[in-house]
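Researcher: We are triaging several targets before committing to wet-lab work. For this one, the compound of interest is pyridoxal-5'-phosphate. I'm pasting the protein sequence and the ligand SMILES. What I need is the predicted three-dimensional arrangement of the protein with the ligand bound, expressed as structure tokens, so it can go straight into our comparison scripts without reformatting.
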Amino acid sequence: MNEPSIGRPRRVVDALPSYRPGKGAKQAEAEHGISDAIKLASNENPEAPLDPIVAAVAAAAAGANRYPDHRAGDLRAAIARKLGVESDQVTVGNGSSGLLNQIIVAYVDPGDEVLYPWRSFEAYPVFTSWMDGRSVTVPLTSTLEFDAQALVDAVSDRTKLLFLATPNNPTGVATTTGDLAAILEQVPDHVLVVVDEAYREFVDPRFGDPVAELLPRFANVVVTRTFSKAHGLAGLRVGYAIGHPLAISTIDKTLLPFSVNSLAQAAALAAIEHEDSITERVERILAERSRVEEALVQAGWKLPDHQGNFVWLRTGDATDAVGLGLEQRGVVVRPFSGDGVRVTIGSPAENDRFVATLEQLTASGIATPG
Ligand SMILES: Cc1ncc(COP(=O)(O)O)c(C=O)c1O
């Protein structure tokens, strides 16, 4: 039954459950009567932002009585310079999820189809339903890759958007630009293809660069990226999209006024100036990812080729029990019922704690490596 409402909400909104964000450490502590929980549930960066970024945010805060630059012109120009594209090929949004939502608002009429592999980023079905669009999903293959032929076959006259996350969330599996191009060659121009690269900085270079390699070939591709993950700015909400100027100006029409605030703009500009330090941080996370993977493989887990800042355990029917078992022992992860558990790479101490806690669950028969 729908929740009671005041006024006359749109049918699709009224039918939605209330939004419940992922559980934080404090909430898990209160629920389970424990005291030192850690959160490895939202693919956040375990390190605080770099000092010069914090300083830039503090300086911007002094001018917070003024509205920010709606177009974030300096930031667009800095991103364009960094990527070797024109400024009119770049837009910024309230996190890359803000941009994904803008894209759906800009392109999807009621009943239009939004196509994506599944399982993938949880926001795609939610944003699609807000616009009364129709989600069309194509299962990942048994090796967690995109099923290229099935995706191409699923395109119809009503398909407006195709979302391809690389690496995919929650599985962590990335797709090469060659394999993406093989899909794009068969997708008609009336479909806008969004290559969602929220975790780009963690990906092995052998997978290629969609901005450099795909945008010049395919006008119907938009790439989304974010400062939330590698740059550690999830709390400030700034992401960006790169594509053909006509697609970018369409997406810009749905940018909520001033939605990239002045602190976020200052932080992102400072992050671009300190890319070397960001790269060092990424390398620390990659080293930790390898260490966690080695421990998991030793424990008998069969892992996909993770390319993000998280790992994916195929726990199947035991998923709820494994998720709860970890949480009751103070390690908050992200279970996807019946499917698997996604665990963010945290600090070395947090990662040790996750591995040791999972071993306890295995010893007590709650988790079965597979
Ligand atoms: C695949 C994918 N895309 C986009 C996002 C959105 O990130 P943000 O809105 O913080 O940029 C996430 C966040 O977890 C993600 O996993």
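Researcher: Any quick observations?
Model: The first strand starts at residue 38 and ends at 39.
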